[in-house]
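Assemble and predict.
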Amino acid sequence: MKTVLVIGGGVTGLKAASELAEMGYNVSLVEKEDYLGGQVTKHKYYKLAPDLRLAGDVIYPVIKAVESNSNIKVLKHSQITAVSGAAPEFKAKIKNSKGESEETFGAIVVATGFDHFDPTVKQEYGYGRFKDVVTNAEVEEMLNPNGPTKGELKRPSDGKTPKKIAIFQCVGSRDRQVGNPYCCRVGCVVSTKQAIEIKEKYPDSEVYVYYMDMRMFGRGWEELYGKAMEDYEIIFTRGRGAEVTLKNQQLSLRAEETIMDRPIQHSVDMIILAAGMAAGEGTIDAAKVLGIKQNDYGFLAPKDDFLSPNESSKPGIFIAGADKGPMDIENCIVEGAAVAAKVAGSLKN
Amino acid sequence: MAENTDKMVIDGVELTGIWKEFLPSRILYEDVTTEFLDEVKKLPGGSTIVKCYQCGTCSGGCTLPDFVDKFNPRRFIDLVRRGHYDILVNENKDLVWKCVSCQRCTHRCPRGVNTQEVVRAIAKFLENRKVFGKITNDEAFDEIFMDEVIEDGRIDEVKIVKDFYSKTGRLKDMMSADQISLGFKMLTSGRIKLFGGRIKDWKKVSQRLKEELQ
Ligand SMILES: Cc1cc2nc3c(=O)[nH]c(=O)nc-3n(C[C@H](O)[C@H](O)[C@H](O)COP(=O)(O)OP(=O)(O)OC[C@H]3O[C@@H](n4cnc5c(N)ncnc54)[C@H](O)[C@@H]3O)c2cc1C
Ligand code: SF4
Ligand code: SF4
Ligand code: SF4
C-alpha cells in the first residue's frame, strides 16, 4: 500500500488524513507547528459561527480521529524541504529537530491553510499604534475561557472591559490598496458572531459594525445576522471605516453613514478589525518546494476550478482547504474528504 | 419632485382619498440616465469613476466636511453615475469645486478610484454645462487672462481690456469718454501698444496646453 504525504495539520489536512487512513492508506501528516488544528487551535477559537457551537466540539473529534488511527504518522514541528520524482513516486525530504530524512510517497496533499491579514499596513486604522485597536483573531483568543484574558473582553491598554465597541469589516480584503481585491468570505459572519458573543456576555455594551455589504451566504448565516439585529440590538452602519484617531485619550473613528450621506465621528472604547485571510507563508513555501501554481494572491491554483478543484498544476499533488482561498470550516471539512477520495482514485490506477 | 395629483377614479368614485392630493410625493420623478457617467468618464481624470463601489472611505476621511457642510465625494460620484442631474446641480454645484486636493481619498480608496481627480472631473462637467451662472468680474478676468496666455503665449493689453468688457457685457462702458481718454493717454505715453507681438512657434505649445487642459 502506498503512503500519502499530507502537509498541514489544520482542519482540512486532519480530515484528509483520517479519511485516507480509514480507506486503509498509510499517511504521514507533516505539521510545522507543535500542535494540530491549525488556526482554530492557534487563535483558540471558542465558539463557531453560525451555531455558536464550541469550537472544541468540532476540532477535537477531527484531531482524535487522526491521533487514534495507527495508519497515520503525525510529524509535528516538521517541514518538507525538497521534493523530487513524479506521481506515483515522490521522494520528500522531511526536516525536524531530529534531523532530515527522506521518504517515498504515492501522492501529496497540500493543506497548508491561510494567515490572518496583518493590518499594520493599513496605517489609517492605527493597529500597532493604538493599543485598543485589535484584530478579530485576538478577540477569538480573549473570548476563550482558556485564553489570555480567561474569556473576558479587555482593553489591552488598561485591562478594562470596553463599553462601546466598533467593528470594521473588510480589513485587508476587497482592497486594491493592499493587493487583496477578493472577499475574505468569513469576516462578516465571524464579526456578527463576535458581536453576539460580546452582547451576550456584556448586555450593557454597545456594538457597532461598520460594513460595506454584509455577505451572509453560508448555512444559517443570514439568520444569525437577523438575530444580531433583532435580539441583540447590534448596530450595523453601512460605510467602510475610514480612519481611527485618538481624541483626548479616547479612540475616535471616522466613517461615512452612507445611508444618511454624512460622515460621522464616533468615540468608542475598542475597535476590532475584521482582518481577512491572506495566503500564508507556509502555503507560499510549500508551493515553491513542490513547484505548483499559485494564483495572483499567492493561494494555490487548482488545475481547473470547476472540473478538478482539488488537483494542483502537477499530477499526483493535490490541494484542499483555505490554502486555495478563503474558506470556512464546514467547507474545509468537505474539501478534506473530497481530496481524500481524489487521492484514493489516483492511487488505484 | 413633482406633486402627485393622480386620482384613482373607479365608477365615478375617487378611491385614493383627499390626503393624497395635499401630500407631496416622495418619488423621484427625475429622468435618470447614464449619459452623464459617459461624459465624466471621458474628461481628464474622470476614467476611474467606474471603479467606485460606494464604500464611503473617501467621504468618511475627507478633509472638507469639517468645514464645508454636505461636501461628499462619494455622493457626487453616485449622483453622476445614477444620472441624478437635478440633485447634482441644485444641491452640489457649489460644493464640488471646493475640494482642496489633499488626496486622502485617493490614497485610501480600496478600489483604486482616483477620487480627487474624479471630483475635479465632475466640477469640470458642471462647468461645461454652464451651471455656475453669471460669473464675477474677477472670475471673468482670470478666464480671459488664461485664455490669452494659452492662445498667444503673452498678453495683449488692448485685447484683454476689450475681451473683459465684452465678456462682462459692458462694451458700452468701454466706450465712455473717460475710458477713451485714459486709453489714449496710455497709448501715447507708451504704456500700452495697439498690437501685441508674436511668439515664434507658439501654436504648437498652445496645442499641447489645450490638450492637457481640455
Ligand atoms: C478570526 C477568524 C475566525 C473564524 N471563525 C470561524 C468560524 O466561526 N466558523 C468557521 O466555519 N470558520 C471560521 N474561520 C475560518 C477558519 O479559520 C478556516 O476555515 C480554517 O481554519 C481553515 O482550515 P485549514 O486547515 O484549511 O487551514 P489552517 O487552519 O490555516 O491550517 C493549516 C495548517 O497547516 C500548517 N502549515 C502551513 N504551512 C505548512 C508547511 N509548509 N508545512 C507544514 N505545515 C504547514 C499550519 O501550521 C496549520 O496548522 C475563521 C477565520 C478567522 C480569520
Ligand atoms: S466576508 Fe465580509 S468582511 Fe470579509 S471581505 Fe467579504 S464582505 Fe468584507
Ligand atoms: S473610497 Fe473609492 S470606492 Fe469608496 S466611495 Fe470613495 S471613490 Fe468610491
Ligand atoms: S482630495 Fe478633495 S475630495 Fe479628496 S479627501 Fe481631499 S478634499 Fe476630500
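Chain A touches chain B at residues 124, 170, 174-177, 212, 238-243, 254-258, 261-263 (CB under 8 Å).
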